[in-house]
């Protein structure tokens, strides 16, 4: 009972400390003085149908190659990383890469999380499209094989949308603690190809108006099935930064002033790589992520007591060959307007014109 009361008190204090407007304002003034440039340009040009990918990262080395290769294959050429005290070779792997800006801060993540994110997008994405993703997430969108990224952004702008809702999809491999091939020659997407939708719970989206009732808030998923956690899986990750849009204003992953698009995109999420166990132990020991997810990481740690990773069930799992497979289950959503735009502006049409 005593421990429970202490835990509740700590969560209340942490929440007050993190979201108190006066403290947030002070941190926003302080943070620029706690950031140093490691490499890359601080100013760069981006066309109106281009975007900047931004990321706060710590110990992201296992993901960096796949992260850059995947997003460059979509057509992204500008990346900004804010390293938050990595102890692996993250900085070495990111530094001096073409089109990559690397900054560093040692500010505590659990109180500066939203301040760091806000700093990045306001510093580098003002009046631009921004993709804000974690290092273990790979962004993709419906019919991306047919529609180039710049044409997706043109579609959003022409139809007066300022953001796209994204759904996280946890990727894994069955019994990967024993049988996974960690060959460096294979990308993360090639190694972790399984997903499971059976434990995803859907609710009405509460942080803005959606143009399609199929666009909903997702919870749970494979982590609920295996660890018993109730993870929020929905984010506003792709957005155009200009008033009235305010990112990270509603519970970390959501925004104010949204005009949400009539499509839904995906963040392929790869948490269960070889560094997962180390990340979990570090999170529990340091309380890095704060009160909101302390319980989540403690649940992961309990499940790892007797093996490096729990065995993932396969009876309802599927192998992902193409993100468009997710349209069949309404995990991804597209409108008829979007399909028409793809038919008119997609790669097949352009090849025919050539």
Number of helices: 13
| Total E-strand runs | 15
Mean pLDDT reading: 86
- Helices and strands: which structural class? alpha/beta
Task: Give helix % range.
Answer: 25-40%
Q: List the helices and strands in order.
A: HHEEHEHEHEEHEHHEEEHEEEEHHEHH
Distance between the termini: 72 Å
Strand residue percentage = 15-25%
Low-confidence stretches: 176-184, 350-354
Cα shape: globular
Q: How many individual domains?
A: 2
Question: Biggest sheet: strands side by side, in what order?
Answer: 1-4-3-2-5-11-7-14-6
Task: State the assembly state of the protein chains.
Answer: single chain
Cα-atom Rg, whole angstroms?
Answer: 20 Å
Major β-sheet annotation: 9 strands, mixed
What features would you describe in this structure?
36% of the residues are buried. The protein has a 9-stranded mixed β-sheet. A two-stranded antiparallel sheet has the order 8-15. By secondary structure, the chain is α/β, with parallel strands linked by helices. Helices cover 36% and strands 22% of the residues. The longest helix is centred in the N-terminal third of the chain and has 18 residues, at 2-19. It folds into 2 domains: 1-135, Rossmann fold, CATH 3.40.50; 136-272 and 309-354, no CATH class. It has helices at 2-19, 21-30, 61-74, 90-94, 109-124, 149-158, 176-179, 188-191, 222-227, 276-286, 291-303, 336-345, 347-353; strands at residues 35-39, 51-57, 78-83, 100-105, 129-132, 137-140, 163-170, 194-195, 200-203, 217-220, 234-240, 246-250, 254-256, 260-269, 318-319. The protein starts with a helix and ends with a helix.
């Amino acid at each position: 009972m005593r421990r429970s009361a202490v835990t509740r008190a700590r969560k209340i204090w942490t929440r007050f400390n993190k979201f108190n407007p006066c403290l947030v304002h002070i941190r926003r003034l302080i943070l620029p003085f706690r950031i140093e440039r490691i490499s890359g340009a601080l100013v760069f040009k981006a066309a109106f149908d281009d975007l900047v990918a931004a990321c706060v990262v710590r110990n992201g080395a296992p993901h960096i190659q796949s992260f850059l290769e995947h997003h460059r294959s979509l057509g992204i050429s500008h990346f900004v990383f804010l390293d938050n005290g990595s102890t692996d070779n993250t900085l070495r792997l990111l530094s001096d890469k073409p089109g990559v800006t690397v900054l560093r801060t040692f500010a505590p993540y659990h109180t500066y999380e939203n301040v760091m994110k806000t700093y990045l997008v306001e510093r580098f994405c003002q009046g631009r499209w921004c993709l804000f993703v974690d290092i273990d997430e790979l962004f993709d969108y419906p019919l991306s094989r047919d529609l180039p990224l710049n044409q997706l952004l043109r579609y959003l702008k022409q139809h007066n949308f300022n953001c796209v809702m994204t759904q996280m999809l946890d990727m894994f491999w069955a019994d990967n603690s024993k049988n996974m091939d960690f060959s460096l020659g294979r990308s993360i997407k090639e190694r972790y190809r399984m997903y499971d939708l059976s434990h995803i719970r859907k609710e009405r989206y509460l942080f803005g108006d959606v143009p399609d009732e199929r666009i909903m808030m997702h919870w749970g998923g494979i982590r609920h099935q295996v660890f018993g956690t109730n993870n929020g899986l929905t984010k506003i990750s792709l957005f155009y930064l200009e008033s009235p849009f305010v990112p990270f204003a509603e519970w970390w992953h959501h925004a104010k002033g949204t005009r949400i698009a009539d499509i839904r995109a995906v963040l392929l999420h790869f948490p269960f790589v070889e560094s997962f166990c180390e990340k979990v132990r570090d999170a529990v020991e340091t309380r890095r992520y704060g009160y909101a997810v302390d319980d989540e990481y403690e649940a992961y740690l309990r499940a790892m007591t007797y093996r490096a990773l729990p065995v993932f069930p396969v009876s309802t799992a599927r192998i992902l060959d193409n993100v468009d497979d997710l349209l069949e289950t309404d995990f991804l959503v597209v409108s008829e307007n979007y399909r028409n735009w793809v038919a008119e502006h997609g790669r097949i049409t352009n090849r025919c014109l050539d």
